[in-house]
Amino acid sequence: QQQVKQSPQSLIVQKGGISIINCAYENTAFDYFPWYQQFPGKGPALLIAIRPDVSEKKEGRFTISFNKSAKQFSLHIMDSQPGDSATYFCAANTDSGNTPLVFGKGTRLSVIA
Amino acid sequence: ETGVTQTPRHLVMGMTNKKSLKCEQHLGHNAMYWYKQSAKKPLELMFVYSLEERVENNSVPSRFSPECPNSSHLFLHLHTLQPEDSALYLCASSQLIGPYEQYFGPGTRLTVT
């Protein structure tokens, strides 16, 4: 119940294309869904986060789509650039608990020119 | 120094050695974490501290021993490690445990020979 399942494990996208990474969860108490981005040699860093009061959140080229009934959320990267090549982790947590973030297993994105 | 710093950045140790990893956060946070990152388990939570008290220990072997002397510092003491312990060890901090942004350090790349 505490797991967050992330797919795909790796993704190759042409420059200018759309990158889509999906996550699914079981725990209906989850109500905070962040995405982290990790470049080689660095620790992960928060990219964008959503709470279930909205179905979509957009920051620049990055959009989170959230489907509460399906218990799924996804990250869309529009106009993907080589500089977006990184590992992306979805995560989930609950506002009401004193528990750490639960992370997905990550997606390694490569954007090729 | 800003953010979360970790030292050393690289460490090679034999199976009989004793060494320590150090993490320092300059963000005034109350929660700190140790993660192990490897190809098999991309973000494996090891230990969680809140206000210098250990609140989570995810079945980590006793050859890993954490220490949190104050809210700004976190150590991971290592002894009699195995080659499969070779990984990137990441430290993170957050304001509190829960739905708060985690700030990660750059990690220590550990190789056990």
Keywords:
heterodimer; A: 113 residues; mainly beta; six-stranded mixed beta sheet; five-stranded antiparallel beta sheet; 0% helix; globular; B: 113 residues; seven-stranded mixed beta sheet; four-stranded antiparallel beta sheet
Could you explain the architecture of this structure?
The complex is a heterodimer of chains A (113) and B (113). Chain A has 113 residues and is mainly β. In chain A, 0% of the residues lie in helices and 52% in strands. Chain A has no helices and 11 strands. Chain A has strands at 4-7, 10-14, 19-25, 33-38, 45-50, 56-59, 62-67, 72-77, 86-92, 102-103, 107-112. Helices cover 0% and strands 57% of the residues of chain B. In chain B, strands 2, 4, 5, 6, 9, 10 and 11 form a 7-stranded mixed beta sheet that branches. A 4-stranded antiparallel beta sheet of chain B has the order 1-3-8-7, with no helix packed on it. Chain B is globular and about 35 Å long. At the A-B interface, β5 of A face β5 and β10 of B.
What's the layout of helices and strands?
The complex is a heterodimer of chains A (113) and B (113).
Chain A: E1 4-7, E2 10-14, E3 19-25, E4 33-38, E5 45-50, E6 56-59, E7 62-67, E8 72-77, E9 86-92, E10 102-103, E11 107-112
Parallel strand pairs in A: 2-11
Antiparallel strand pairs in A: 1-3, 3-8, 4-5, 4-9, 6-7, 7-8, 9-10, 9-11
Chain B: E1 4-7, E2 10-13, E3 18-25, E4 31-37, E5 44-50, E6 53-57, E7 64-70, E8 73-79, E9 87-94, E10 103-104, E11 108-112
Parallel strand pairs in B: 2-11
Antiparallel strand pairs in B: 1-3, 3-8, 4-5, 4-9, 5-6, 7-8, 9-10, 9-11
